[in-house]
Write a structure and sequence with these properties.
352 residues; 15 helices
């Protein structure tokens, strides 16, 4: 079979040369986390400083302008350099800029430029949810094609040609290239990875180091039996907080439409039902139980917390934080389980 025949059976985007980065989710999550943290930090600072204004008289330099500058700087970094070395920096700069930009969304959806527009928190949260769903659609629904692994390995080698490879960087590039075995030019990419000179100097990447430490912490925590109890208690605790917000809406203690309170109560009920199903199913299959609990957390993130932000605004950050931590823990657990199943499956196949 010719290489051309193999290429003809690939997805249209891949045939067009659009390969997904295997580290894209980390960069996009960095962008979103930094953006949300910037919004919260900006709101806290402005409240503590009694909402100062840059400028005087008729001149007011809104922080949306600084947001545009931050996003522009991030784009300049991402478009200026080859290889993956500065992508984390670009994600951080763009995240700060995006946070400063979206924080002023209230000014642009109201006729009187009201920064304190009540649904602002829910609007910002909704924007973030949409971006998360876009990320999931791009990177969470399809496995990477072997050609994509090969393309990423080549991308790593690009940086290595200029500055060399540390032992860790070479091992990572080699693993990626190995996953592209059987694709056109796979042997040449492997040879290129091995030909890159060795060097001990690497571009510092605090974001990646933080992600690795967090992953190691989650992995270690998952070894303990009490982890499942903590996860369930955390999810139910966050649900209880959301339920309290929903009840406040229904009794008229919070001045928002009644449907917001009803939506919160329904979302909490679905989350609790998923947790109960997870506990029942988890007696026989821990993975299936974790999947059910994860579904409950996703309902909370995509529905309940969105409405909670509409009801109690920034107070809902506590529930959001809990849900995100639990989702990260469950993602680590399921990912580890998938790796173990794959490893055992290969071992069994080799034994046969």
């Amino acid at each position: 079979m010719s290489d051309g025949a193999g290429l003809s059976r690939r997805a249209r985007m891949l045939r067009a040369g659009v390969a997904r980065d295997t580290a894209a989710v980390r960069h996009l999550v960095t962008f979103l986390v930094v953006g949300v943290a910037t919004v919260l930090g900006t709101r806290f600072y402005l409240a503590a400083a009694n909402y100062p204004q840059v400028g005087g008289g008729d001149l007011h330099v809104a922080h949306v302008l600084w947001g545009g500058l931050g996003m522009a700087l991030g784009i300049v970094v991402l478009l200026s350099f080859v290889g993956p070395a500065l992508r984390s920096l670009g994600a951080v700069l763009s995240g700060v800029g995006f946070g400063l930009f979206v924080d002023e969304i209230g000014k642009f959806v109201t006729s009187d430029n009201d920064y304190f527009y009540q649904p602002t928190a829910a609007l910002i949260y909704g924007v973030v949810v949409v971006l998360v769903l876009v990320t999931e659609a791009l990177h969470g629904r399809r496995r990477h094609h072997p050609a994509e692994y090969l393309a990423v390995a080549t991308d790593r080698a690009v940086a290595g040609i200029a500055g060399g490879f540390t032992d860790v960087a070479r091992a990572e590039a080699r693993t990626l290239a190995e996953r592209g075995r059987g694709e056109p030019a796979a042997d040449e990419v492997l040879a290129l990875v091995e030909a890159v000179p060795r060097d001990d100097v690497d571009v510092p990447d605090p974001v990646r180091a933080l992600v690795r430490r967090a992953a190691a912490w989650f992995t270690a925590a998952l070894e303990h039996r009490w982890t499942a109890v903590v996860v369930v208690v955390a999810v139910l605790g966050a649900a209880a907080g959301s339920l309290a917000a929903g009840v406040r809406v229904l009794v008229g203690d919070v001045d928002v439409p009644t449907w917001v309170g009803l939506g919160i109560v329904v979302g909490v009920a679905v989350t609790v039902a998923c947790v109960v199903a997870g506990l029942l199913v988890g007696r026989d299959d821990r993975r299936a139980g974790a999947v059910w609990v994860r579904r409950g957390v996703l309902v909370s993130l995509l529905v309940t917390q969105l409405l909670a932000f509409r009801a109690v605004e920034w107070v809902a950050v506590a529930g959001l934080t809990v849900d995100l931590l639990v989702l990260a823990a469950l993602g680590a657990a399921l990912g580890r389980d998938d790796e173990q199943r794959t490893r055992h499956g290969r071992t069994g196949a080799a034994a046969r």
